[in-house]
Write a sequence for this structure.
């Protein structure tokens, strides 16, 4: 793997990470204020559709972006109504918003454009194009022959759409709002101890609504980015679970902005690797080490604890061990004995690579690697004392 | 504080919620240039208009009874199992393995074994999220969502690799042996010389679904375990003081939930006209279970009614999209609206109705 490949991989990671990052920061505002939001996916999807549709109709991508933000805010307010005003179940409201967007985008897209649930392709001013910085090379062939510094500048730094830079800038901005402004302090407080905020004479409802509206704005940008910058138009279910991965990144980042950037870049890298390398080979020895190592760790953890730990973790480690042994035995052949089989390589199923972010999330949630503690009042509607 | 009568809570509130969902659906039809009245007529005909259509409606309702019960059992323990979709897929793997690799002499034995395998596989798929919820406090909603994605990855891998017969193009298992094919209701009607249900796949697993309803009803309201589940769901801390183990109840409630979802796979693998396990076999039934459980107020009777309604909606929506340019996703929109109004915005519907009843009852007292 030469330097240019690494730069390209980094470039792809950033492009993949931006929608995750925007959605993750959206979730951060909402959850820091005590409103769980599993409807990020739906809001992004609705914004992706409407911004593509309006961009196409108006010919201006900026109008499209505004429309996307608008619909996302509207859905946020519905979520706010359900979870703040009517004190409903926030998870159920999020689920409903996801389905609503998943269904309605296709129905409306078919009704308006009759292209099988897509919008027509966008071009010219109806799309966000990459911005080439001064002096940056644009042709792939020129880039490949340039010096490493120039490659880095041309491929990695330059050439992204403006939304990428907005996304990256929103990290320090989020940090500044949360930790350096009065609003941010109150926002964090309302997620931890709403009764204290209320006692201080500050409106819990007002703060929470402003948090979900900020969440809507960020989701709107994320959705518009997908349909007007990454792709040229909306396609059915184009968010492809990014809203859920953003939630996972948020938990992994423990609800902090800079860590969110790190987590999203990591998940972006997963996607970039998956896109670029279709055929990932791994030596059997490594598979054995990973699987049996994990099994051993689980057994060691369980053995000193209760019966339930032994049953569940023991069972899981047995399954992993069987998979490891099966891979080993399976790669012995006519010329390869048991020992030689250890150094054979096998293809890692692409489905497994695609499942890695999800698996990673579960491992993080399990809390064996640094426990993630959510905002204390998260998910609970606030009932004013009388 | 006085409460409104029970019939209002059980019937009036869901009906008003449904009406609200229907009004918004009408607006949606209207906005895509479809006459709402025509669309509703088409859907109603598509759902129950012919014997075939009715059979399909019942077939889908069977699916939704299983997934609705699965969500409801978890809800009683105040746990939100959103992973029904994944549990159905993995349950399908269980049923497929049992049917393909063991030569069953008769469908009754295959049904027992396949049902058991589907239930066990479904329960196994929820074991890790349940364990993490019970012992590590990892949120069940997020973990089960992740397990849904992993289940579809696992299924695609199994269907395109291990379980796919050589030379077959479709990502699916081989067609199960004839002896494992469950008799359809049409076969049963045929015994009496009737043509009822035509070529629809509705089959005897609908009776298994009804049995499961009875089982859940007995479990939740007539056993010690059910009492513990409900107590835990009402108040975790009170249940703990009463000596109920939070870890055990969380595990057991979720395992039962996973097993119920897994059992749906019997209907959509062994019960269909060409019995096999196909890619994306659950088809969203796991999620519709959420709407069904919410609308059915987590009670088996309510779940049966809600499942029939959603079965009709699903089948009617399919016919509607075949007859007009409206895509099937219209069903997802209606499902979302039902979840929203009966689940999250429940209070919005309930408090005005409650207010009305209070006003009337206070008047009655004065007079």
């Amino acid at each position: 793997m030469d330097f240019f490949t690494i730069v390209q991989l980094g470039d792809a990671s950033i492009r993949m990470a931006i929608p995750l990052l925007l959605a993750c920061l959206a979730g951060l505002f909402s959850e820091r204020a005590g409103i769980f939001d599993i409807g990020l996916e739906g809001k992004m999807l609705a914004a992706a559709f409407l911004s593509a549709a309006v961009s196409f109709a108006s010919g201006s991508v900026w109008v499209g972006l505004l429309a996307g933000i608008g619909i996302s805010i509207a859905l946020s307010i519905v979520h706010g109504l359900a979870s703040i005003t009517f004190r409903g179940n926030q998870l159920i409201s999020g689920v409903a918003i996801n389905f609503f967007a998943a269904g309605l985008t296709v129905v409306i897209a078919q009704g308006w454009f009759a292209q099988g649930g897509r919008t027509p392709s966008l071009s010219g001013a109806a799309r966000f194009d990459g911005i080439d910085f001064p002096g940056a090379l644009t042709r792939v062939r020129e880039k490949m022959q340039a010096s490493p510094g120039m490659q880095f500048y041309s491929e990695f730094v330059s050439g992204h759409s403006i939304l990428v830079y907005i996304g990256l800038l929103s990290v320090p901005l989020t940090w500044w709002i949360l930790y350096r402004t009065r609003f941010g302090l109150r926002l964090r407080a309302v997620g931890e101890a709403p009764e204290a905020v209320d006692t201080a004479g500050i409106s819990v409802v007002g703060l929470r609504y402003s948090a979900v509206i900020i969440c809507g704005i960020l989701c709107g940008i994320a959705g518009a980015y997908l349909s007007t910058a990454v792709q040229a138009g909306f396609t059915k279910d184009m968010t492809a679970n990014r809203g859920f991965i953003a939630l996972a990144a948020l938990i992994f980042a423990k609800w902090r902005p800079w860590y969110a950037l790190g987590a999203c870049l990591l998940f972006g890298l997963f996607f970039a690797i998956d896109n670029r390398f279709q055929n990932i080979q791994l030596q059997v020895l490594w598979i054995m080490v990973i699987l049996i190592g994990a099994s051993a760790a689980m057994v060691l953890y369980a053995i000193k604890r209760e019966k339930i730990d032994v049953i569940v973790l023991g069972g899981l480690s047995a399954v992993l061990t069987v998979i490891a042994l099966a891979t080993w035995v399976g790669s012995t052949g006519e010329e390869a004995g048991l020992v030689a089989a250890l150094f054979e390589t096998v293809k890692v199923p692409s489905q497994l690579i695609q499942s890695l972010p999800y698996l990673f999330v579960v491992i993080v949630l399990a809390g064996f690697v640094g426990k993630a503690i959510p905002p204390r009042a998260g998910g609970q509607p606030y009932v004013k004392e009388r | 504080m006085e409460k409104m009568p029970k019939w209002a809570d059980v019937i009036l509130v869901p009906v008003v919620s449904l009406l609200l969902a229907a009004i918004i659906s009408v607006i949606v039809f209207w906005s895509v240039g479809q006459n709402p009245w025509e669309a509703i007529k088409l859907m109603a005909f598509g759902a129950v208009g012919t014997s075939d259509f009715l059979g399909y409606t019942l077939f889908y309702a069977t699916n939704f009874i299983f997934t609705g019960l699965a969500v409801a059992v978890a809800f009683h323990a105040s746990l939100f199992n959103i992973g029904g979709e994944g549990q159905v897929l993995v349950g399908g793997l269980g049923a497929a393995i049992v049917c393909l690799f063991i030569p069953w002499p008769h469908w009754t034995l295959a049904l027992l074994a396949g049902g058991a395998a589907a239930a066990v596989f479904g329960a196994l798929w929820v074991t890790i999220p349940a364990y993490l919820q019970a012992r590590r406090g990892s949120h069940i909603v997020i973990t089960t969502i992740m397990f849904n994605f992993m289940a579809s990855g696992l299924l695609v891998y199994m269907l395109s690799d291990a379980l796919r017969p050589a030379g077959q193009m479709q990502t699916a298992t081989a067609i199960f042996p004839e002896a494992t094919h469950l008799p359809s209701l049409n076969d049963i009607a045929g015994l009496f010389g009737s043509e009822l249900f035509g070529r629809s796949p509705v089959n005897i697993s609908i009776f298994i679904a009804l049995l499961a309803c009875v089982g859940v009803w007995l479990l939740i309201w007539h056993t010690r375990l059910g009492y513990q589940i409900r107590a835990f769901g009402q108040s975790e801390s009170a249940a703990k003081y009463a000596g109920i183990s939070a870890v055990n109840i969380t595990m057991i409630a979720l395992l039962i939930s996973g097993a119920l979802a897994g059992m749906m796979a019997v209907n959509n693998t062994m019960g269909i006209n060409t019995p096999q396990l196909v890619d994306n076999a659950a088809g969203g039934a796991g999620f519709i279970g959420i709407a069904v459980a919410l609308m059915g107020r987590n009670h088996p009777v309510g779940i049966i009614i809600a499942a029939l309604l959603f079965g009709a909606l699903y089948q009617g929506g399919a016919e509607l999209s075949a007859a007009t340019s409206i895509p099937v996703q219209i069903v997802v929109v209606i499902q979302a609206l039902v979840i929203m109004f009966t689940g999250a915005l429940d209070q919005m519907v309930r408090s005005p109705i409650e207010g009305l009843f209070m006003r009337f009852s206070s008047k009655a007292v004065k007079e």
